[in-house]
Amino acid sequence: MKNKITYKDIVKLQPCYNPSEIGMNEDYSDTIPNFIDEFKDKVKDKEDIIWLICSYQYMTNKDMRLFAVWCAREALKLVKNPDERSVNACNIAEQFANGEATQDELDAARTAARPAAMDAARTAAMDAARTAAMDAGRAARTAAWAAQFIHLKTYFG
């Protein structure tokens, strides 16, 4: 496993961006955590970073778990009042990665957070369905108005 990632390594992986476009010099070489910190907000899409670093060639299991925790916490920032079970699962996952929690504690936190994730998914699906229904209703009203307008225009000339 490589401890550092370099400009040349990134170019070899053929990402969908040119590393120099995000301010990386050709002599760049650093650890994955430092790479993430430095470039996570410089790429157009965070998936560009995720795609690159989710290679076992560059990250230890600990690094991958800590990165997953970071991603989860970034997602939780988008929620007004994140469920405490989800926050706790992130905390326990981080502690587990650092050797400060047991597998049983991690399993318990995951089991406790699963209903919170299901509730969030259900809420998101209902919101999406509601929005789609409202958009469809608006489109139908607009189409009906347009049809009436065309009919009236044809009728009255």
Strand proportion: under 5%
Could you give the order of the helices and strands? EHEHHHHH
Count of separate DSSP helical elements: 6
> The biggest beta sheet, please?
2 strands, antiparallel
Overall average pLDDT: 80
Count of discrete structural domains: 1
Q: Are there runs of 5+ residues with pLDDT below 50, and where?
A: none
What portion of residues is helical? 55-70%
Count every beta strand, where a strand is a DSSP E run of 2 or more residues: 2
Strand order of the largest sheet: 1-2
Intertermini distance: 77 Å
Which radius of gyration do the C-alpha atoms yield? 24 Å
Based on Cα principal axes, name the global outline. flat
Structural class: mainly alpha
Describe the structure.
Helix content is 68%, strand content 3%. With 157 residues, it is mostly helical. It has one domain (5-118). Strands 1-2 form a two-stranded antiparallel sheet. The longest helix is centred in the C-terminal third of the chain and has 54 residues, at 103-156. It is flat and about 65 Å long. 12% of the residues are buried.
